[in-house]
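Bumping with the actual sequence this time:
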Amino acid sequence: MPAVLVMLTQPCAAQTNLYLIALMGQSNMVGSGELSDLPPEFPSNPAKLWNFTNAYKWEPSKEPIDSPVGQVDIVSQDLRAGVGPSLALADAFVSAHPATSVGLIPCAKSGTRILDWQKQQTPEPRRTLFGSCVNRIKTVSPADGTVRMVIFWQGGGDAKNQNDALQWRERFTTFVADLRADLGNPNLPIVLPILVAQSESPKKISLLANREGRAALGRYSGDHQDRDRWI
């Protein structure tokens, strides 16, 4: 056990002052794409892209970012994690900001609802998705950089029935408030990607969830600077 504790406190050997991005949500954030579909030159900025793996180790970023190999916090384990959006996003960000190096912190879990991401009062918070991710963020920040944003890609799990969709806004707002409080940053940017449903059968409920998501952000719409912390 002591050896594990030492591992958890080791800073990133190759980089300091990383632009840290925490990755939370469900399957769209985890990723399910095929490695064989990646172009050979991807990513284009490998020396500036780092991943705090599920094994609690810094490694140069490579797909799958959410790999279960050596996973410490089993609560967020995805045995079939594949290619997701996070590395491509980080690669594009570094291309636009060449002086920046990015550190990704994967925490997502496939098939989860917004209720699964609520903070829970428990003696073992790391057995919860919220507690595990907060712990992972605090393990590397501020030693290796500053957490600049959280990408929370979730909502499909709540679009399956109308009741969950209608309650998504309130639950998401509570999640954001708790996350910012636990990380000690009331202005932490939360990025919320939203997809529009393509199939006809779940379209009505999915659009309802989409509306609730936008409504959760809507009270900031009058203040451009504050709105940018959310979207």
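The tokens above came from a reply further down the thread. Residues 1-9, 200-207, 217-231 have pLDDT under 50 and may be disordered.
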